[in-house]
């Protein structure tokens, strides 16, 4: 029996995250709303190109095939278009055979305030102001970063999700200690060792990992019963922390009741070295400096906490 809406794992995705709207946005900015409407009507049957969040959304929805009776995953399209100009987005969804049926069209107005109505765990958008507003209101949200090319291998059935730790899965308490010390690593390590067994509070994307972890456990049980079943979900933490500060990561995950498949404690090594090998379908980080040199990896910036205070 399908899950009721309040039990489903729901992701809200803006059309600007799911599809590449670069050309459409250019028409709107340069020629105005009237020409924009004409442009969308003229191209209504031309599907949008895939956007940064597309590989993540497509593979997430594929989990419903693993749990056909429950259908536990749902994606909601969030659009600032009017219903009329948003028709092209829905036709693009049909073209790519994405199982998305719910939507929110708000004719130019912000729409993050409707996230709880859909019971959404995460909001993805390319609009920085909308993401910041959602985070400030207490919702999990991230800004997808535009890339000219995103790898999406249709023969790859896994969904690999990678997370930074501080300011993403956890709050920024430890980052505040580091900043307050003036970047003194000795003081930082001393503090983290003293609190090694104390879990940090969940950060802005922590609830997403908790939801994902539920399905990882379901997949593991399914694989134990059916040796032919291939797990879809794979999770990883890629953090600048290294020993001994890694112990607090382990303590936090245990307290939160979640598991990850892999963890990389890099201690200053460029994260792109790991990510360009792993090729996650989405990577969440709160610092732009960690995202600027990543090639062909869908990146999501979490504009949260002290790392983003100007």
Description:
By secondary structure, this protein is of the alpha/beta class. It has 2 domains: 5-144, HAD superfamily/HAD-like (Rossmann fold), CATH 3.40.50.1000; 159-308, HAD superfamily/HAD-like (Rossmann fold, 3-Layer(aba) Sandwich), CATH 3.40.50.1000. Helices cover 36% and strands 17% of the residues. The chain contains 11 helices and 12 strands. The chain has helices at 15-18, 22-42, 54-61, 63-66, 87-95, 128-136, 173-180, 185-194, 206-225, 246-256, 272-278, and strands at 9-14, 19-20, 49-50, 73-79, 102-105, 120-125, 141-144, 159-163, 233-239, 262-265, 282-285, 299-301. The strands form 2 sheets. Strands 5-4-1-6-7-12-11-8-9-10 form a 10-stranded mixed sheet, sandwiched between helices. Helix 6 (128-136) links the parallel strand 6 (120-125) and strand 7 (141-144). The longest helix has 21 residues, at 22-42. The mean pLDDT is 89.
Largest sheet features: 10 strands, mixed
The CATH topology of the largest domain: Rossmann fold
What is the helix fraction of residues, given as a range?
25-40%
How many structural domains in the coordinates? 2
Tell me the structural class.
Answer: alpha/beta
* Widest beta sheet: strand line-up: 5-4-1-6-7-12-11-8-9-10
Tally the helices: what do you get? 11
Taken from the alpha-carbon principal axes, the silhouette is: globular
Rg for CA atoms:
20 Å
CATH superfamily of the largest domain, called what?
A: HAD superfamily/HAD-like
CATH top level label of the largest domain: Alpha Beta
Give the low-confidence spans: none
Kindly state the number of beta strands.
12
How much is the average pLDDT? 89
- Overall CATH architecture of the largest domain: 3-Layer(aba) Sandwich
